[in-house]
Amino acid sequence: MYKNLINTILASLLALNVFATDQTIINKLNFRPIAVSGNLPSAEVQQVYRDREGLMWLSTRSGLCSYDGYQVKTYRSTVNYPNLFQSNNIWSVSEDKNFNLWIGTNSGLYTYNKRSGIMRRMNRSLSDPISKVYVDKNNDVWIGTNSGLIKYISQANTFLRFTNQNHRALPSSYSVTSIIQTSDESIIMGTWANGLFHISSQNNTV
Predict the structure, then answer these.
(1) 20 to 30 Å CA-CA from 113: which of 100, 119, 149, 168?
(2) Cα dist. 181→133, 189, 190 in Å?
(3) What is the reported pTM?
């Protein structure tokens, strides 16, 4: 009895010490706005992505921005360039091994090749808002939309849609909010109001 009591007291003291240490670290954190904010086309930044060369890509509601630590360059449809994006509302960016940025917008999927400077609309049938784009270790692209998950298989140049008809573990309707790959190369998908799902990137089972 006394032994259990002592263990409980020690555990409580340890927890308090950890909390105090964490609180000390938190108190030392210094948050400040970045001066670049005034040069953005929108104050609403929906994702920050760092590419393999260290360039920062900012997905905003009024265009895609690159930031090299000194200057901001904005990519968006304007009067002079009306067809760059069908929608300037950018949700997500991810880079593949061929220096292509995969860009999810409120109206479809685009790629931008950093070497050639060419912007291209991918699969015009994908017109839904694309909330998340993620390039995995095999260079395949996982595309999260308001109406489900899609995988672009780079070697086959095909799009695979994950639905309840071909994967019974999935709900009949779901919206993707996040995608990440684990150390064993599995995909974890977060959804709006339907929880998490585990997907094999090898055989595409859910």
Answers:
(1) 149
(2) 12, 9, 12
(3) 0.83
